[in-house]
Amino acid sequence: MTDTASRPQTTSLWPLFAPRGIAVVGASRHPGKLGAALARSLCGYAERGAHLALVNSRDETMHRSVSEAAQAGPVDLAMLCVPAAASPDALAEAAEAGVGAAVVCAGGFAEAGGTGLQYQQQLATVVAETGIRVLGPNTSGFLAPHNGVIASFVPGAAQVPPGRVAVVAASGGVNHALAFLLAEAGHGVSLAVGLGNAIDVCASDILDYLCEDPHTAAVALHIESVADGSTLIASVRRLASRCGVVALIVGRHDVGAFAASHTGALATSWRITRAALAQAGAVVVDDERELVDAVGALAVTRAKPSRDAGVGVVTAQAGPGLLLLDDLRARNVQVPKLAQRTRESLSTLLPPLTFQRNPVDTGRPGPELGQVLRTVAEDPAVDIVAGYALYEPDAVDVVAAVAQGQVPGVPMVLGVGGAGQAVRQARAQLLGVGVAVAADPRGVAAATGALVADARARAGSGGKVVLPQAPAVDVTGLYDEDRAKALLELIGITTLPRRACTTRDEAHAALMQLGSPVAVKVLDAALLHKTEVGGVRLGVRTPTELDEAIDQLDRIQARRYLVEQMAPAGVDLILGARRDPVFGPIVLLGLGGTTAEVLADVAIRLAPLTAVEAAQMPAELAAHAVLDGWRAGPVLDTTELGRIASALGALLVANPGLVEIEINPLRVIRDGLVALDAVVQAREVDDAHTH
């Protein structure tokens, strides 16, 4: 891949996605060949009166070169349908002819290894020397229906209608799969791009292009790997401020090389990428079906920015309504109890045995459905209305009911169950009036969850952001637990009274000074997990017990000891900050001990982050109820946790020589938060100066 900092850049990708003319290099008369398939896909482009040139030096009925094709009309885009070995020369020829962009369709490059690596480097060299923009190689192309450009060899691609959803996919196959799903859902696409090997044009480039695309209202982003995390996050943040972005990240079961710490083991690239994109404003989903429902909703409507958007649920059938409610609750969506006035109004519209508190069950829908929708939408606690109804035209006109029930500023998501052309037409009409549509309760929940997540993300993006500052510190040498805790104290994190001891006599003096009970630990910077080697003894009360503890530590060749006051009982967390090779400094929060590793129940943020942002992390943990006074236990002060997590991230940002800081456990006690153990890793001195 070329160095993005040194390669020539153009200000726009219009030669690629909105070309004035296209040359198909390697066009063929043989129907089964790639060049023939692409020429067929581009017939619609030629029928619009645009210049489509077929290039094949061995066919006298076609242009012999791109230069010759350019003499017959403008050529901004070259579709290269030649083998990998011939592609670098074909690209160089196109650049010399003044072509602004090219799509390299062939495979057999870096993904194939061997000589393919050489061919890909040759392509990258042409890009670096000429500035031509290249999509691919190893891509099935792109669709830009609004511009009449179906630059794809996949059958059926030309049947995807123009729409308001853009697809940016790492894979050409996923790109087309999503485009087809969006078409089936009634959306179509504004642009659909498969990146392939992405030697030049990458996801960030296309996201920046879409920031100025008037046809795009929402973007579906498919990620397999990230080369430049900061650039991607900046692009997503810019785009999400203008339109909805929904991301699907591959690699849930990534178990790549773990760091020695718990933080490193928990912070897989998949989790970090998801967290980073969500922090930048994207809605993160788990599969392609959810992606289509989510991005389809954001293409037609967005909720007002809100950290706790409330959803009013209206269902015409109880069973699907329960499925919808269950799914919403699993997404941590607020389904508030309706106001007394709202319930009184509903009681005049619905039979007495129906449930009317939220969700609202209408029974079989009737003419009152529109007024029910409006009544729920007007409730002060409702920001979004989510509903489901089977298509029963004899009972109710769903489209008319929605028209009656819409309230300005309150988005609506409606599931319409049924089959056949009439159902598809009803869904299309609803989309046309700005109502997000799904075919089933799960789809309604996915769409509603996307609106809520998008509203939360935008609620946190307004106003002036004041990031924490941290001191520069001396990072030379090794950090044992005592030195690590001294660093935490420097940024205001509470630790327990302790004494570092080099002799047995000093340990006994520490016991007298600190009072019992104490914890006695081996003090050795090389031991990151002291408990695993028998390096910790808890609850030591008497001199005799202290001698026994020291004897135990001496058996593992301890040379220094840490004697520390014991902490009250509480709930243990792990809080860590480390440098990710792709995204830079991150902060991770989870339950302490081994629980977090077993359940992988963690929240992650990029650093630096504000204390307010960090304070929201505990709510993302599946086990967050444990932190809310479970079984009369202590209650986590999220404001204090936010301050600590923010300060930890800021410390890493301010000190490039620090590699990782981990507090495990960070104990929640009735008086606040206290760090019971800490690990700090720094680079070697020479290495730190080179970063």
TrEMBL record:
Protein species of origin: Mycobacterium lentiflavum
PANTHER family from the UniProt entry: COA BINDING DOMAIN CONTAINING PROTEIN, PEPTIDYL-LYSINE N-ACETYLTRANSFERASE PATZ
Name of one Pfam family that matches: Succ_CoA_lig
Transmembrane regions: none
Protein name: Acyl-CoA synthetase (NDP forming)
Sequence ranges assigned to domain CoA-binding in this UniProt record: 16-109
One Gene Ontology MF term: ATP binding
